[in-house]
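User: I'm curious whether this sequence folds into something compact or stays loose and floppy. Could you predict its structure so I can see for myself?
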Amino acid sequence: MLARPDIYRCVECGLPYRAEGFCHYEGQLENGPAYWSDRGILCSPQCSLAHHRRRVAEGTLGDHPAPDPFEIVMQKGGED
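Assistant: Here's the prediction. I'll summarize afterward.
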């Protein structure tokens, strides 16, 4: 089986989802990302804070938590 390119990247810095240093929920890749927003996943607390600050400055901060992006993919039947 060939390795697939990672379609998920941090929306702040571009770090791929499976890269070393990407924070996963409870430290487990299978559990999905530890941080996300309505615009995508975030790789670390630092990128999460930077994203939040940028959204506040833009005036585009959401008024409720974004749904888990990996639960949405699983409900649709995969990431194809």
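Summary: Residues 17 and 42 are 9 Å apart (CA to CA). The first strand starts at residue 35 and ends at 37.
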